[in-house]
Amino acid sequence: MPPLKTVLILGGSGLVGSHLRSLFESKGCAESVLTPSSQDLDLTKQQQVEDYFQEYRPQQVYFLAGRVGGILANRDHPADFAYDNLAMALHVVKNSHQVNVDRLFYMGSSCIYPKLAEQPMKEEALLTGPLEETNRSYALAKIAGIELLRSFNQQFGTKYLGLMPTNLFGPGDRYDPFRSHVIPAILLKMDRAKRRGEEKLTLWGSGKVKREFLYAQDLAEALLFLGLLPDEKYLPLTKMPLPLLNVGSGEEVTIRDLAETIREIVGFKGEIAWDENQPDGTPRKLIDSSKIESLGWAPRWKLAEGLKVTYQDFLEEGIF
Ligand code: NAP
């Protein structure tokens, strides 16, 4: 008999959602796993969300859907990032409460922390300073989502928890030279440069900023770990002043080192140049994941190993 009844994964087609979906399927942890696409259920539409939740009444909700993108997408579409993420959070949290969802997991992002927060960033750094300008709309929408969890937990005794993953990557990512996050963007550009026999590849920014990356499967495992955590360990998390847990790998690299690792995996022989006119974003972004690690979760994937599997998937999917 699986430990969980009906589980709803929102964003099940996405980078994290697809890994979580496979994990639930392979481990058989739930009687039923619902994974509606945005075509089946548009979370920005209140009535659709209400009808769906009333019909399926899930026991647990993994809210992984969101309007997600890199620096340029955030810069060019701030209204879409703010509106869609706010609307989704409002509808999902409210309707989870209406149908007595037991555990709701929501995704924040490490960009919600102040631009110059002390490193590594602890959960308590939230709202202690100005945000990075390039993704301010997205970050504020995500912060509002966390505040919804906190308010509902306080007023209604719900058991909702926000997770703060660091930058994610893995098979199933979105590849677009202009819109993607840094790993899929570099991987795609590097692969193209190699295929075209180019002698020089120019990447955006100075390459000097530092980032932490987490393999998407590790985050999926953290989610399932929390979904199955016994009440006596789980409930105190939702009663913290901020119901938030950082989830990172602890492995920090400069973008230059990241590009070199990708170069080795892809086999690009040319020169890598840096366009310092393009925005860099926050200088350093390392989160402190000691809280979730003290509960017994730990990341399993090293960056280079995850990148190899990701590139293999990129080739098999014929994305180039
Ligand atoms: P992703 O690959 O971009 O997938 C986004 C998902 O959201 C897709 O499944 C998409 O569904 C769904 N979605 C978008 N708009 C929707 C709508 N209006 N209604 C219903 N579903 C909608 O996202 P991800 O990278 O897995 O990220 C998962 C979560 O983690 C997000 O909340 C994100 O903010 C957060 N996060 C991501 C990163 C990262 O580096 N990727 C880092 C930190 C936090 P369809 O495909 O059906 O349209």
Key traits:
four-stranded mixed β-sheet; 320 residues; 12 strands; binds NADP nicotinamide-adenine-dinucleotide phosphate; alpha/beta; globular; Rossmann fold
Description:
This protein is an alpha/beta fold. The chain has a domain at 4-172 and 213-250 and 286-300: Rossmann fold. Helices cover 43% and strands 17% of the residues. It contains 11 helices and 12 strands. It has helices at 15-27, 46-56, 71-76, 78-98, 136-156, 182-195, 216-227, 231-238, 255-266, 290-295, 303-316, and strands at residues 4-10, 30-34, 60-63, 103-107, 160-165, 167-169, 200-204, 210-215, 244-247, 252-254, 271-275, 284-285. The strands form 3 sheets. Strands 2-1-3-4-5-9 form a 6-stranded parallel sheet, sandwiched between helices. Strand 1 (4-10), helix 1 (15-27) and strand 2 (30-34) form a beta-alpha-beta unit. The longest helix is centred in the first third of the chain and has 21 residues, at 78-98. Bound molecules: NADP nicotinamide-adenine-dinucleotide phosphate. NADP nicotinamide-adenine-dinucleotide phosphate (NAP) binds next to helix 1 and strand 6.
Break the fold down into its secondary structure elements and pairings.
Blueprint (H helix, E strand, L loop, with lengths): L3 E7 L4 H13 L2 E5 L11 H11 L3 E4 L7 H6 L1 H21 L4 E5 L28 H21 L3 E6 L1 E3 L12 H14 L4 E5 L5 E6 H12 L3 H8 L5 E4 L4 E3 H12 L4 E5 L8 E2 L4 H6 L7 H14 L4
Parallel strand pairs: 1-2, 1-3, 3-4, 4-5, 5-9, 6-8, 7-11, 8-12
Antiparallel strand pairs: 8-10
The structure holds NADP nicotinamide-adenine-dinucleotide phosphate (NAP).
